[in-house]
TrEMBL record:
Keywords: DNA-binding. PANTHER family: HTH-TYPE TRANSCRIPTIONAL REPRESSOR NSRR (PTHR33221:SF4), WINGED HELIX-TURN-HELIX TRANSCRIPTIONAL REGULATOR, RRF2 FAMILY (PTHR33221). Pfam families: Rrf2 (PF02082). GO terms for molecular function: DNA binding; DNA-binding transcription factor activity. It comes from the Bacteria. This is Rrf2 family transcriptional regulator. The keyword Manganese does not apply. SUPFAM superfamilies: Winged helix' DNA-binding domain. The keyword DNA-binding applies.
């Protein structure tokens, strides 16, 4: 099994926002795109879905941006993946194929059991778990580096004083 790029981006967005802390300005889509090298068109779709699910607060406008709206201590990775991957999706499309084993196949049930076990395991971990330790520290460093770079770009150089010799 491999997660879709959509879910991968969704998890990264949530992790990044979880460590945004008490930033004065919300995180922008452009910032996340730059930090993770994600095309903006993909990112906008993911953020829209995260907002629709109530996990991200998205504010439009000049001072707008993104903030985490979910409680990281209770939002499980399993919940996120079920919603972003499609909890009813199966690993094999048995109904959409013309398989001679369709009526007597045991594989479909095995794959369903494996998916349930995967999601059950992911339900043991929360967003807070995903941002603990070194991962969380790295995300905080990413925030600082971005904010320091943005501050440097907006700093206005003052003219040198004119000497009166």
């Amino acid at each position: 099994m491999r997660l879709t790029r959509f879910s991968d981006i969704g998890l990264r967005v949530l992790i990044y926002l979880e460590r945004a802390g008490e930033r004065l300005h919300p995180v922008t889509v452009a910032e996340i795109g730059k930090q993770f090298n994600i095309p903006l068109n993909h990112l906008v779709k993911v953020v829209g879905q995260l907002a629709k699910l109530g996990w991200v607060q998205a504010t439009r406008g000049r001072n707008g941006g993104l903030r985490l709206a979910a409680d990281p201590a209770t939002l499980t990775i399993g919940q996120v993946l079920r919603k972003l991957e499609g909890e009813d999706d199966e690993l094999v499309d048995c109904d959409g194929t013309d398989c001679a084993l369709k009526m007597d196949c045991q594989l479909r049930g095995m794959l369903r059991a494996g998916m349930r076990a995967f999601y059950d395991a992911m339900d043991r971990y929360t967003l807070a778990h995903a941002t603990a330790g070194n991962t969380g520290e790295q995300v905080v460093r990413m925030h600082r580096m971005f904010l320091d770079g943005a501050a440097a770009k907006t700093a206005v150089a003052l003219p040198e004083p004119v000497s009166e010799d």
